[in-house]
Specification:
Number of strands: 12
Largest sheet: 7 strands, mixed
Strand order of the largest sheet: 1-2-3-4-5-6-7
Number of helices: 3
Order of helices and strands: EEEEEHEHEEEEEHE
Strand content: 25-35%
Helix content: under 10%
């Protein structure tokens, strides 16, 4: 994600969503006053004037998706961190109680949203071991009839291609 402009989506299934691109796979969704951060990485200044996260979605263990220093700084008392087990294993002890582990295929209700963990991986080929199946998650976040897909670092997997009724998709 390279565009630094803020986008407001009105009336997607009668929903008001503001999208704030940050850097690479990092973005903030202001979904009717609930702030959902994805893969917050980068300089402190990128997040300085932003509201505190209610939910942080982490997709993978690589540094362009998991910045432990940024995670420490952004996580507040109210924050829920959602991550696959491989990512949760890397999170510092003082944040472990904030983590809700979701593995591929799991569905949970968090903060008023339905969250589905979508497998995120490379298909067989030269880079097949860089993002192995089962380690990382993409996510579908839903509220009402509105569904947003956050891919993480993935190929065009069968699981991604099977998704239906996606209103907005972010592909890193």
């Amino acid at each position: 994600m390279h565009n630094k402009e803020q986008v407001t989506m009105n009336n997607i299934q009668d929903t008001n969503i503001e999208i704030v691109p940050i850097e690479h796979a990092s973005l903030i969704l202001d979904w009717e006053g609930v702030f959902i951060y994805t893969d917050p990485v980068g300089k402190v200044s990128l997040f300085a004037s932003k509201p505190d996260p209610d939910i942080i979605l982490l997709t993978d263990i690589h540094g362009d998706h998991l910045d432990l220093e940024r995670l420490q700084a952004l996580t507040k008392e109210k924050t829920i961190i959602i991550a696959p087990q491989a990512v949760a294993d890397k999170i510092p002890e003082n944040l472990k109680s904030k983590v809700s582990v979701m593995n591929n295929g799991e569905v949970a209700e968090k903060g008023g949203f339905k969250i589905e963990a979508i497998p995120m991986y490379n298909l067989p080929g030269p880079s097949q071991n860089y993002h192995t199946k089962g380690r990382g998650n993409g996510y579908v976040v839903s509220k009402g009839d509105t569904r947003i897909y956050i891919s993480g670092d993935t190929a065009g997997t069968p699981e991604m291609r099977a998704l239906q009724n996606i209103d907005i998709a972010f592909v890193a």
